[in-house]
Amino acid sequence: MLIRHTVKDMSDETQPAALEAHVPVPAVPPAAVDLPPSIGRLPDARRPWLRRLLRWGFYAVAVLVALPIVLTLVYAVVPPPVSNIMLLRALSGNGIDKQWVSLDNISPHLARAVITSEDARFCEHWGVDWREFQGVIEDAFDDDEGPVRGASTIPMQTAKNLFLWDGRFAIRKAIELPVALWMDFVWSKRRMIEIYLNIVEWAPGVYGAEAAAQHHFKKSAKDLTKREAALLAAVLPNPIKRHAGKPSKRVRASANRILIRMNGMAPYLTCLKG
């Protein structure tokens, strides 16, 4: 009896140890216990959306930069069908009255009057008149008929009309300068003034020399007189408020000053010769 009891006791003591030795205990990583299930997945869900936004933003900037570069090359041989300013004005309710004519079919008085009034050093600079650059930024205003152009050159105005927008915005000027330099590099001076005279606004919804001559004087652009050309040039600073066909006293005075200055401009217009 004593022997059997001893064996039983030994069996009872060793059985739990044997069970513990043969039952596997699964290993649990500490990170899986400590971190909530959602942590680590949120950044992965957001990153594709952010990457798409940045990608499309990059594409938009690339298009805005490439468009003036490419279209300047195209417009060296093809007339611009429309300008940004025309489209923006159309959105506000104005129509688009325009007709392209070559520089040879525009009175030479008009090119001389516009250059005399807007950009006397047109044939000398390379798109930007750095001597008068401060005036471009400050943009002086007259009393009752709107802004007077400072030193904004014809290439700069062409860049604004074709590719940009109106308004006194520093960012627009920052874009306008390199575009004007690029256009002046690609185009001849004759091509520059030809495009400008065909896209600039001469009355609400009236664009280009031919439409302006018909609108204000009921004649073709090639038949404009010297005084009519000076009147058209005098309204360019604000064609919305000023009228060449029915000029105000201020417009007539401005046209008279342009006429006087035109008399001495011939030596400075050699770049217009074909």
Q: Would you write up a description of this structure?
A:
The structure is a single chain. This protein is mainly alpha-helical and about 270 residues long. The chain is built from twelve helices and three strands, in the order ααααβαααααββααα. Strands 1-3-2 form a three-stranded mixed beta sheet. The longest helix is centred in the N-terminal third of the chain and has 34 residues. The N terminus is likely disordered.
Mean pLDDT, to the nearest integer, reads: 82
- What are the segments in which pLDDT stays under 50 over at least 5 consecutive residues? 1-11, 13-21, 139-149
**Largest beta-sheet characterization:** 3 strands, mixed
What's the gyration radius in Å? 37 Å
- Oligomeric grouping of the chains: single chain
Shape type: globular
Q: Tally of extended strands?
A: 3
Helical/strand content category = mainly alpha
Helix content: 55-70%
Percentage of β-strand residues:
under 5%
Order of helices and strands: HHHHEHHHHHEEHHH
Distance between the termini: 136 Å
**What's the CATH topology label?**
Penicillin binding protein transpeptidase fold
